[in-house]
Write a structure and sequence with these properties.
The protein contains 5 helices and 8 strands, in the order E-H-E-E-E-E-H-E-E-E-H-H-H. It is an alpha/beta fold and 168 residues long. It has a 4-stranded mixed sheet, with helices on one face. The longest helix is centred in the middle third of the chain and has 12 residues. The radius of gyration is 19 Å and the shape is elongated.
Length: 168
């Protein structure tokens, strides 16, 4: 049986593929600096045949928390949108704060724990507590949590728990 944690090219069935204008290497370096269990992979450069300038970065591979990503510099033809996002599971408020602060640098905060980073890639920075509280069989408690979350930009675990307990 294959090791599912193997970080070699092609060991993952589905790989997120990110299209950049010219920032693939910069994005790779940024994301690898944000996530602890991460590493850079191969960087390929354009040659004489182009279409990019000879020696400029064509593509890069990297791993974030064990997930292989591919990035391509292929021009301004396509843009990222929040219709596709990366969900970051956070064990506690400290982890939410850490990823929020790093990924928000040069980006834009959105409602309900979403950030569009400086490259236009959208991330959801979500504490594990949110899913547990929203999944409570007591629909009144879960409803209070949903209402509280809908008013938040960065998710506040203590605020969610106050709503759950009926303290808001």
């Amino acid at each position: 049986m294959a090791d599912t944690n193997d970080q070699t090219a092609g060991s993952q069935k589905i790989t997120p593929f990110l299209w950049f204008d010219t920032q693939a290497e910069e994005a790779m370096n940024f994301y690898v600096s944000v996530f602890r269990n991460s590493r850079k992979g191969n960087v390929s450069r354009y040659g004489d045949a182009g279409p990019g300038a000879k020696g400029s970065v064509m593509s890069a591979t990297f791993w974030l928390e064990g997930v292989e990503f591919s990035a391509l510099n292929a021009g301004p033809h396509f843009k990222f949108s929040p219709a596709t996002s990366f969900f970051v599971h956070c064990k506690d408020q400290q982890e939410v704060d850490e990823y929020w602060d790093k990924l928000l640098e040069g980006g834009q905060a959105m409602q309900c724990g979403w950030i569009t980073d400086k490259f236009g890639v959208t991330w959801q920075i979500i504490p594990d507590a949110l899913g547990k509280l929203l999944g409570d069989p007591d629909r009144e408690k879960a409803g209070r949590v949903m209402k509280a979350m809908m008013k938040m930009v960065k998710i506040d675990v203590a605020g969610l728990k106050r709503a759950y307990d009926g303290e808001n």
